[in-house]
Specification:
The protein is α+β, with helices and mostly antiparallel strands and about 170 residues long. It has two domains: about 70 residues, N-terminal domain of TfIIb (Single Sheet), CATH 2.20.25.270; about 60 residues, Arc Repressor Mutant, subunit A, CATH 1.10.10. About 25% of the residues lie in helices and about 15% in strands. The protein has a five-stranded antiparallel sheet with strand order 1-2-3-4-5. A two-stranded antiparallel ribbon has the order 6-7. A hairpin with a 5-residue loop joins strand 4 and strand 5. It is elongated. The structure holds zinc ion. The site of zinc ion has 8 residues, from loops.
Length: about 170
């Protein structure tokens, strides 16, 4: 986790502590998320239902539950959100970068057809500027770069090209 970009040092240590809970529907592990992601992703008309509690995200791709609060009384499902959740089954389109709304298909195309490999270059191919606010805009509150570069490398390897190293990180760089 983390690429050394702004996602990890926005001045709050609050989001760093990862806690786990259990999804009341499927029993899978649910991981704590920063409260801000709910405000970004829950549909406007349902925002009043967001409680002032800690929330967790169900990590099971087959489960429609996404956000669950600590009391398990407040649950937001896929249908309650503004955007699809990339790791949930059937999510369409699959989004690789939530801050800039870049889909898996757009990443693949940029890598395959334009030879782009860098997060910023790929984003800028589609958008005027590249923003990075994963702690608010990514559904898990984590930096998207790990996931993003895994996808870039999948395409590169398929094309017979060497994968990029992203341990040093280039999201937001
Ligand atoms: Zn679940």
């Amino acid at each position: 986790m983390g690429c050394g970009c702004g996602c990890n040092d926005n001045g709050s240590n609050e989001s760093k502590e990862v806690k786990y809970s259990e999804c009341p529907k499927c029993g899978s592990t649910a991981k704590s998320v920063p409260h801000d992601v709910l405000n970004s992703l829950v549909k406007k008309e349902l925002q009043k239902q967001i409680l002032d509690n800690d929330y967790y995200i169900c990590l099971n791709p087959d489960c429609e539950n996404v956000y669950i609060d600590e009391t398990k009384e407040s649950v937001f499902k896929l249908a309650d959100l503004k955007k699809p959740i990339w790791f949930k089954k059937g999510s369409e389109p699959k989004i690789a970068c939530y801050c800039n709304n870049i889909t898996y298909d757009q990443v693949k195309k940029a890598v395959r057809e334009l030879g782009l490999k860098d997060w910023k270059d790929i984003v800028l191919n589609y958008k005027e500027k590249a923003i990075c606010m994963c702690e608010k805009l990514n559904p898990t509150g984590e930096c998207c770069s790990d996931n993003f570069y895994k996808l870039v490398n999948k395409v590169l390897v398929k094309e017979g090209k060497p994968p990029v190293s992203f341990s040093s990180g280039s999201c937001c760089g």
